[in-house]
Specification:
- By secondary structure, this protein is an all-alpha fold.
- The chain folds into three domains: 329 residues, no CATH class; 85 residues, no CATH class; 224 residues, no CATH class.
- It has a two-stranded antiparallel ribbon with strand order 1-2.
- The longest helix has 33 residues.
- The termini are far apart.
- The structure holds a DNA duplex.
- GO terms for molecular function: DNA-binding transcription factor activity.
- It is found in: Nucleus.
- Keywords: Nucleus.
DNA sequence: GAGTTTGAAACT
DNA sequence: CAGTTTCAAACTC
């Protein structure tokens, strides 16, 4: 997608009116007002379903191999998102701001649990970043107008950006020690700087202000307002920092921008390929993990574009970045989401922080060359989720670029945390998609030293993994760093062993390829769309940034044979229910997630990790050709049975009632056997358990309804473990959730009146729960024809009524 | 740590 | 599409 013109999506976009109303008057706010998480979910699902199924899919719209065909852009056409992208691309000549708008909503998706790419890939998500975009731009027609009104005249800004790049290109080359980096000739810092320029544009400010306009106050809660506002502040301050060289003390609001820089700075210390993070960084990393991943991911994309296109011309690089816009809307969002997700799952607080970056530095982040992700894998990464990100990040070691010293100061500012938490709140919504996407796979491998990042596990990863992940996040950054150091010093064999152990524990996976050159799907890294890293024990590895072209061409080749070769293997069960309730209930659980293609086990009985289903912690399905299936997560024959579990909603209702009465009882063992498995996934934490509980609730068809009924159950654990920031984030979610759409959804259920009452009685619990609802958004198409949840609910309701 | 088993990926 | 080979992870000893 080098140019929008060549992009079918862009071509299909509808003309954008040049007479757009003022930003404050933009329908975008109406859109926000009317936007419910559910709606977003639906949009996402549609997209995912489209891209994930084996059904005929639209021909790849990408003209560049760097964009993963897996990333479905068909939704763009449908929703006219393309119009927005196209508009942005053509009129702003930049993706920066535009792309993030949608992110506001999506970024919030936190939670990707595992930190490993493997999991993520396996599980992960196929989160498309597109989803994020998609959500944000659902009302494409509105967005373009908004953008136009708010960003009109950005071309001038872009111009400045280009100039800035030109002026700094030389410096960059001098400081770069990485070949790839040198080729780029584009300094991350420059990009940041240029970004700042853009963001300082008055029109941009106006645009942001629009979010806080009086008119939108009733829609956007305090949290939401903070973001846009803080975003402005970030930009201004950041710009000031850059222009003024260094600033000793920076307001916390700048964190989003400074984090990326900080990360890069830290990274430059380990050019040896080691993923070990400087302790300094590690200390501060707690606040930046999500950001870092996110940034790198983005950076990778940007770098790729640059590298691919014209390394000698900074402007060209910028152009390339811009070229990503059409997709990037989703892309960026996805990237952000993913990283955030992983992080989020680990630590809500961190999530908030990381999320804040989305709006400000995501795209602006430095662009280390050769970052872990394959360009092509970006789409996939998104799909995969944070894990990929994580892995990728790990690669930064040798390619990261020097960063201004002032970044350190920024990091040290304690205010950043608080501010970021607030600022990031708004974005927490965005992660939904990612999580969903993750429905896919979950084997994550966290290459990232900071284990908490674990994402991906996220997989498209199965939500299961995601749910588990939070625990991992509790590992201290220092611990991770230490372990990474250790790992890097190991012999290949030891690495392998260690890696294996890590995998078992849910950490990162690394390959040990000997003959595939890490250019075949045998290679876990390659299959995950990430570059091999120092901790890999592979031999004759070509899956490295320096062989990017080879990697990409190989990927293309493989994808030509099998377009879904790099797609998450684990998909979530989705329903076709018109009722939004279904969406909420689409948690990846043993019964809801399945291996897309199914396993073919003959001897392992699907009881060992040889079995991909088992490995992904999902049950076998009818699509499996396994013999003697005894998959503890669900055997083939149980697949249908699991489906029937949804019909147990009425039972859950009873449970909910018990909860309301103060009963500690949460679920009936018989109603949800799968939960036991889920719990076994990770020894962890309250959060996990809470999530599991939630998941179990959701598992049932009436999940959403029940959930609302028993927010109390979840609330203590979720909120308690997450800390104050969680609340902040939740607040935003809650506000979002309390829209009419949600009510409508509830009305569809038999106990609408009760739900409402419950909500009002325990708003907090609801808030906590809402976050999960969003995460539960299904990202994959149904593997088999399922009875719609709505119909199930109806049946349940009918049965329940009859019983009473 | 070496060797075996296993099943996905790749190949024919 | 089926059968075979290759491969690397998972597993066992």
């Amino acid at each position: 997608m080098d140019s929008p013109e060549g992009n079918p999506v862009a071509a299909s976009s509808s003309p954008i009116s040049s007479d757009s109303p003022p930003v404050q008057e933009s329908p975008f706010f109406n859109y926000l007002r009317n936007l419910s998480p559910i709606k977003s979910v639906k949009a996402v699902r549609y997209t995912q379903r489209f891209s994930e199924t084996n059904l005929p899919t639209p021909p790849p719209v990408f003209t560049s191999p760097r964009i993963d065909p897996q990333r479905d852009t068909s939704f763009l056409e449908r929703d006219n998102v393309a119009a927005a992208d196209s508009f942005v691309h053509e009129n702003f000549n930049t993706q920066l701001n535009v792309v993030h708008i949608p992110s506001f909503e999506k970024e919030g998706q936190l939670c990707s649990p595992s930190g490993c790419i493997d999991e993520y890939l396996v599980d992960p998500m196929e989160v498309d970043s597109t989803n994020s975009t998609h959500l944000g731009l659902q009302s494409a027609g509105e967005v373009p107008q908004l953008l136009q009104g708010g960003y009109a005249g950005l071309k001038g800004t872009i111009k400045r950006v280009d100039d800035a790049v030109d002026s700094n290109r030389e410096d960059r080359a001098l400081t770069s020690c990485d070949p790839a980096e040198k080729n780029m000739n584009l300094s991350p810092l420059k990009l940041v700087e240029s970004s700042v320029d853009l963001r300082n544009d008055e029109r941009f400010d106006d645009f942001l202000k629009g979010f806080t306009s009086e008119k939108s106050k009733d829609i956007v809660d305090a949290d939401m307002k903070l973001d846009p506002v803080s975003g402005v502040q970030h930009c201004e301050r950041h710009a000031a920092q850059i222009e003024g060289a260094q600033q000793d003390e920076v307001d916390g609001t700048c964190q989003s921008l400074h984090e990326p820089l900080q990360i890069n700075e830290a990274c430059e210390d380990f050019d040896d390929g080691s993923r070990t993070l400087p302790k300094e960084f590690v200390k501060g990393a707690n606040n930046c993990r999500g950001t870092r991943r996110h940034l790198h991911f983005e950076a990778t994309l940007a770098c790729k574009s640059i590298a691919t296109g014209n390394t000698a011309n900074p402007k060209a690089s910028i152009t390339n970045l811009k070229s990503l816009a059409p997709i990037s809307s989703s892309w960026d969002a996805a990237g952000c989401t993913l990283s955030i997700t992983s992080q989020a799952s680990c630590c809500p607080l961190e999530v908030d922080r990381s999320t804040q970056n989305i709006g400000n530095s995501e795209i602006l982040s430095p662009l280390p060359s050769g970052i872990g992700l394959h360009v092509n894998s970006i789409g996939r990464s998104m799909l995969s989720g944070s894990d990929v990100f994580t892995s990728k990040n790990s690669n930064l070691s040798s390619q990261d670029k020097p960063v201004p010293e002032w970044s350190n100061d920024l990091v040290k500012d304690p205010n950043n945390i608080a501010n970021s938490a607030i600022a990031g709140t708004m974005f927490s919504h965005a992660d939904l998609d990612q999580q969903e996407s993750q429905a896919g796979v979950a084997t994550s491998s966290t290459s990232y030293p900071i284990k908490s990042l674990n994402p991906p596990s996220d997989s498209p990863l199965t939500q299961i993994e995601l749910q588990v992940a939070p625990c991992e996040g509790r590992v201290s950054a220092q611990q991770n760093a230490d372990s990474i150091d250790e790992l890097n010093q190991m012999s290949p064999k030891r690495k392998r062993k260690s890696t294996a152990n890590k995998s078992e524990s849910g950490d990162c996976k690394h390959c040990n390829c000997k003959r595939s050159k890490c250019l075949k799907l045998y290679c876990e890294c390659f299959a995950a769309g990430i570059y091999c890293v120092g901790s890999c024990a592979c031999e004759t590895c070509f899956n490295k940034p320096e062989y990017e072209d080879l990697v990409l061409s190989t990927r293309e080749q493989i994808e030509s044979r099998n377009p879904l070769a790099f797609a998450p293997k684990i998909v979530k069960q989705t329903t076709e229910s018109p009722a939004n309730v279904t969406e909420e209930g689409n948690w990846t659980t043993p019964s809801s997630a399945r291996h897309k293609r199914g396993c073919n086990c003959k001897k392992s009985k699907c009881l060992k990790k040889y079995c991909e289903c088992y490995q992904a912690k999902v049950g076998c399905s009818d699509g499996c050709r396994c013999d003697g299936c005894q998959n503890s997560f669900g055997i083939k024959s149980d697949y249908r049975r699991a489906e029937r579990c949804d019909n147990l909603s009425h039972e859950k209702l009873h449970i909910a009632e018990s909860e309301e009465n103060g009963s500690s009882k949460q679920f009936s063992p018989t109603s949800w056997e799968g939960i036991a498995h889920i719990r076994n996934l990770d020894p962890c934490s309250e959060v996990s358990q809470a999530q599991l509980q939630l998941g179990s609730n959701i598992q049932s068809s009436a999940a959403s309804l029940h959930w609302r009924y028993s927010p109390v159950t979840l609330t203590p654990k979720l909120c308690g473990s997450n800390g104050p920031h969680e609340l902040t984030s939740d607040s935003a979610l809650c506000n979002m959730m309390e829209d009419n759409d949600m009510r409508e959804i509830l009305k569809d259920t038999t106990n609408t009146h009760r739900a409402e009452g419950q909500r009002s009685s325990s708003p907090r619990g609801l808030r906590c729960g809402r976050k999960f609802i969003l995460q539960a958004v299904p990202s994959f198409p149904p593997l088999t024809p399922y009875k719609t949840v709505s119909s199930k609910l109806k049946n349940d309701h009918t049965d329940s009524t009859a019983n009473h």
